[in-house]
């Protein structure tokens, strides 16, 4: 049974079904169900569920808002599910074999390219979103290349390499690794500031965050983040960073400029995925152990409500609504 989140929904007007077509949509990858949930981000109701490949961990949407790309991390098909957003159906399942274990995803600003880490191959695949062909493979040479962050200008890409204890800085113009940057142990979560000046890397085994200067590609500061920090996400204005701490069942909130923690927010069990909507008003936290998504007010830093999605939710993506 799916539950409709009540707290926020009570404050929203009741709209006829046809008026909801232009509303923003939150996509949630459910790892154990092998599905993606489509959540109306206005009413917070699950409007559709689409089957994917096995173990979908991450999802990304191109800026044209037509297709979603889902990394099917588990199983043997090493695939990307391509989902039509309007019709809510899987259009294609792109096999990346011989590349193995696709995971972290990013789309270029123009929507023409999709980048995916292939953890089992220590590489990143660059995919043409229109032809659905792999254009090139960029090798990191690092163990467990897991998550990915694309610079705002599209010229550089950063990966977190969990076992190697590094973050790779990659020049996308010539497809080469500029530097494998030593972080702390177990780097996994990674994001780049909206101005492109810093990359923050969450080191889950050392309970820390490494702050990388993108000009020099060197670590210039380290912050404490106890509780198995596993994801990091910046607000659209770059003023705050949210870090999910999976074993502490909370999200830590940091003042980016001051580089200090300003709040802790209790979530559901095992929070992993984080997404902040483009307006910056709300954040969504996927609680993998609670099979739910927490909705966080970025103004009050309080949980507004919970959305029941599928089992073991993790990666998320957002599609902005249309003005009609």
Q: What's the pLDDT, averaged over the residues?
A: 92
CATH superfamily of the domain at 225-324: TolB, C-terminal domain
**Helical run tally:** 0
Helix-strand category:
mainly beta
Total number of beta strands: 28
Secondary structure layout:
Elements: E1 25-30, E2 35-40, E3 45-51, E4 56-61, E5 67-72, E6 79-84, E7 89-95, E8 102-107, E9 113-118, E10 123-128, E11 133-139, E12 145-150, E13 156-161, E14 166-171, E15 176-182, E16 187-192, E17 198-203, E18 208-213, E19 218-224, E20 229-234, E21 240-245, E22 250-255, E23 260-266, E24 271-276, E25 282-287, E26 292-297, E27 303-308, E28 313-319
Antiparallel strand pairs: 1-2, 1-28, 2-3, 4-5, 5-6, 6-7, 8-9, 9-10, 10-11, 12-13, 13-14, 14-15, 16-17, 17-18, 18-19, 20-21, 21-22, 22-23, 24-25, 25-26, 26-27
Write up what this structure looks like.
The protein has 324 residues and is mostly beta strands. The chain has a domain at 225-324: TolB, C-terminal domain (Neuraminidase, 6 Propeller). It is 0% helix and 54% strand. It contains no helices and 28 strands. It has strands at residues 25-30, 35-40, 45-51, 56-61, 67-72, 79-84, 89-95, 102-107, 113-118, 123-128, 133-139, 145-150, 156-161, 166-171, 176-182, 187-192, 198-203, 208-213, 218-224, 229-234, 240-245, 250-255, 260-266, 271-276, 282-287, 292-297, 303-308, 313-319. The strands form seven sheets. Strands 3-2-1-28 form a four-stranded antiparallel beta sheet, with no helix packed on it. A four-stranded antiparallel beta sheet has the order 4-5-6-7, with no helix packed on it. The radius of gyration is 18 Å and the shape is globular. Residues 1-20 have low confidence and may be disordered.
